[in-house]
Amino acid sequence: MNLRNVAIIAHVDHGKTTLVDQLFRQSGTFRDNQRVEERAMDSNDLEKERGITILAKPTSVEWNGTRINIVDTPGHADFGGEVERILSMVDGVILLVDSSEGAMPQTKFVTGKALKLGLRPIVVVNKIDRPDERIQEVLDEVFDLFVSLDATDEQLDFPVLYASGRNGYANEDPSLREGTLEPLFQKIVDHVPPPALDADAPFTFLVTLLDRDNFLGRVLTGRVTSGKVKVNQAIHALDAEGNVLETGRASKIMSFRGLERVPVDEAQAGDIISLAGLTVATVANTIADTSVSEAIQAQPIDPPTLSMRFAVNDSPMAGREGTKVTSRMIRDRLFREAESNVAIKVTEAADKDSFEVAGRGELQLGVLIETMRREGFELGISRPRVLLREEDGQKMEPYETVIIDVDDEHSGAVVEKMNLRKAEMTDMRPSGGGKTRITFSAPSRGMIGYHGEFLSDTRGTGIMNRLFEKYGPHKGVIEGRKNGVLISNGTGEANAYSLNSLEDRGILFVGHGEALYEGMIIGENAKPEDLEVNPMKAKQLTNIRSSGKDDAIRLTPPKKMTLEQAIAYIDDDEMVEVTPKTIRLRKRFLDPHERKRQSRAKAA
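Above: the chain's sequence. Below: its structure in token form.
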């Protein structure tokens, strides 16, 4: 059968997964009466909830006798590691660009990787039915982007289609607002070359994705680079240097058909398959026939830029809600994650009770913590810190390109806040519809925790996109959180009577009846210093003071933080306690005397 392997790449929310839905429908993968959820490829619970793609996933459709293997990729820069490694599995890319937003930072990142590999893109201008579309300007932006990324003449001569993924049509004429995706299928078959691989050579296969199955064990996914593989064939795994890691048999070979993984008896060069039967092999290893001794070179992955400390939960409430609380369980889970996710690095601390986890950004690490929390883990999480480097005796830190789309009236507030965070403005221009697009080069350190503040400053209308840019000179001290916190001075239940009097002190994070412990953060102080308070004090009842007056207490609802907000909020001497049911903020040292001792030692 004719074969085409193609990846869909785009910025977050430009419509990749919705387009794949329509490709499924129009290729006959689904029955007409089959009930299919929207964004069928986002199979993971967190992906459904957040409406973003987190994991790259292969699928395939059949059209006029050609099998088209499609890889749906995440659009968020934090999950860029997923995109980098799957590009080696495909022979062409479909670059999807929003007809209004145009080329965004993540578009630049993934397109640069694709062009470097020599892939020729098909450009699809999506969402052409938007009222604020600016199709021609967007095409010019894409062309300028390709030129700036040193595209070859062949790559610059890219075909263009104008589409609406949601309504299921694509055309070469930008004025048409109807039709089917037939032109897109045709363009993939005509423009993407079939895999030019040697089918007669010995079997080789590069692992690009890894997951686990309760029955099959390790399932390795990738593209067959040469030769054929049959069920029960003897195979071995090689590392990058060509050393044999293990020998085994291909106990199961599975191919992708729509949303299903279907067992097949054999696969040949060019097929994207999943393979079971090995126990040690991991991402970037080569699986091959036992006669092969040379490994396939894997794509180098950009290094992590941010790290957090994951520690055993040592609060007085540890072990009440979670089932996985020991350091051994946390260690095994983190190393398992690092194995399948190449953008994450895990190192064990000397005390064996905490682990330094480095990743691409707050969102990526936040998704990992949220996943672990749902699996029953309890953790203590520290404030994120950037990974510094030393070059020629000079301290270097990571910088990000930050592109902000904001209503004109809020642009002044955003520029002022970004200046405080040592960001330099590189571009500012109107983007139409009363909006301004501002581009900054900012140290990653300054951006930690800014997103919540940014949404408040822009009344929730601003859109911020960030992408790793380079390592540059260290910018010195960047001012952090201005306000101190309210800290509980004892253990017990929060009482409405005392919380009522504490409301004047600042914003509360807890409500009446919540369990508290000494050292737990219960609110934000209106002043810069930390304040220890007693939120458990009840009203003294006597013959004179009646209890009836308490009915008049009306507490303001407490501010409840999401996991990402909590991680961004804390300071260096604070932690987030994460359990399956609760997110609490606390001081790293719960004992007030220990806190004083540590602050004196730090000042000295």
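The first helix runs from residue 16 to 27.
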